[in-house]
Amino acid sequence: MSVPMTKTAWEDPATRWGCRRTVLFRLGFFLFSIGLLVGWLYVNVVFLTPMWLWVTFPLFLVLLYVWMTALGQLLSVRRLRRILRVYPWQPVRGAARIAKNGSTRFTFQDPERPEKQVSLMAGDWLGGRCTFWVRAVKAGSVDEVWFAGDPRFLGVVATPGPRRLAPLVQPEAANDRMSARKRGVGPEARERARAAGARVG
Question: pTM of this prediction?
C-alpha cells in the first residue's frame, strides 16, 4: 500500500479512521481494566472472608497495574493526534528491531544529518515484551513501517495502512527533569517539534 501524498498525515482519511480505531481499542481496554477491578472488589466483599483479602491482594496489584497501563495508553491518544497534524507519513524499511531489554527499537535517519541514525523505543515498560510490535518483529512480519514525526523528538509509527498506530517519544522531549535536545536541530525542525508537543531546547 502506498503512502498518502498529503502535507500532514492527518489529512489522510485512512489515518483519521486509524486514529479513531486506536481510540476505541484503548478505551475498550481501559473500561475492561475497570471491570476487572470492580469484579475483584465484588468477589472479595460478597463471597470471600476478610482473610481472603490478603490472599487475593497480589491479584489486585496486577489488576491495578493493568488499569494504570490502560489509562496511560488512553491518555497518549492526544499526543498521537497532535503529531499526526504536524508531520506527513514516511515509509521506512527495516526500522523495527528487538532491543536488548526485549522491547522494540525503531531506528530512523536524522532528518538533517542523513548519515546518522536516531532510535526511539516502544514498550520499554513492564510487560513491553508482549506488545504487538515485539510479536510482529520476532515473527518477521514487519518489513516496512510508516513513520510520522522527527525521531530526535517524537513521532507516530504504524504498519502500512495505517494500522497499529503508536506514539513514540524521546525521554528528553517529554521529561521536564531532563535537558531538552539543542544540538543539530534547525529552527524549522524545532518549531515543528514544538507544534507537535515536544520539549525543545
Answer: 0.83
Instruction: Give the integer Cα–Cα distance in Å for 166 and 146.
Output: 11
pLDDT tens digits, 151-199: 999 999 999 989 999 999 998 988 888 887 877 788 999 999 999 999 8
d(CA 179, CA 181): 7
Cell for 21?
480505531
Over the stretch 59-107, which tens digit does the pLDDT of each residue have?
889 899 889 888 888 888 888 999 999 999 999 999 999 888 778 899 9
Alpha helix ranges (H) inside the chain: 13-46, 50-75, 77-84, 132-139, 187-195
Closest CA to 126 of 72, 173, 189: 72
In terms of Cβ atoms closer than 10 Å to its own Cβ (0-12, 13-18, 19+), residue 133 is buried
Taking Cα atoms as reference points, which of 42, 41, 43, 48 lies closest to residue 64?
41
**Residue 33 neighbours by CB distance under 10 Å:** 21
Q: What residues contact residue 82 under an 8 Å CB cut-off, 6+ apart?
A: 195, 196, 197
Task: Tell me whether strands 154-159 and 144-150 are parallel, antiparallel or unpaired.
Answer: antiparallel
